[in-house]
Amino acid sequence: MTEKRTYVAFMRHGPTAWNGARRLQGRADIEITPRSQHFLEERRLPREFGHFRVLCSPLRRCRQTAEILGLKSEIEPRLIEMDWGEFEGRTIEELRVSHNFDFAENEKRGLDFQPPGGESPRMVQERVAPLLREIALEGLDTLCVTHRGIFRAVYARARNWDMVGPPPDKLDLYSLHVFALDADGTPHVEALNLALKRRWLKS
Asked: Contact 101/109 with Cβ under 8 angstroms?
């Protein structure tokens, strides 16, 4: 008899003004833009996600995204974005001037790249791993409405990617990404880049 697999899906919040300005958001509690809100109002989850429990980052941009899509979600603090420490709110261009920061050079540290006073992707993996184990233990397929830093950390673990150089797959950060979980919560890529469906409303 084949053992039932538990699935976890990740979806990023809708874009904010800081995304448009290429500012590092981290824990800053920024709203999504009106344009993003309008886009989400015309979208829905694919039907195969209808039975998924929904967990949501406590930050407003994620809660708004879930609410606009009509999802009843539970707040999960471990899904909060990676802490960018002293870099929060800055653009890469500003950091080059104010911190003499060479982003390309620091990206060579991959999973261990850590902003001053912030988290590294490896630390994010360690923060999220217990949640993945709990989801696997409960056996409840789960959708996480969260952030780029969280999804990339889980994806890196699933692909055994050290975050040095480009990812093994081309990723649309505003699509759904699904992972199958082992009993211990280890993720494996199941499906990537699943788009939200257009909601056809009658006038």
From this structure: no
Tokens matching residue 167? 């990812």
* Contact by Cβ (8 Å): 140, 131: no
Tokens 């904010």 correspond to what residue?
Answer: 16
Helix axes 60-68, 34-41, angle to 10 degrees: 30
End-to-end CA distance of the chain: 49
Tens-of-pLDDT digits for all 203 residues of the chain? 456 789 999 999 999 999 999 999 999 999 999 999 999 999 999 999 999 999 999 999 999 999 999 999 999 999 999 999 999 999 888 887 776 667 667 777 899 999 889 999 999 999 999 999 999 999 999 999 999 999 999 999 999 999 998 899 999 989 999 999 999 999 999 999 999 999 865 43
Dihedral sign (CA 192, 74, 65, 31): negative
List for the chain the helix, strand, coil content (%; round to 5): 35, 20, 45
6-12 vs 142-146, strand pairing mode: parallel
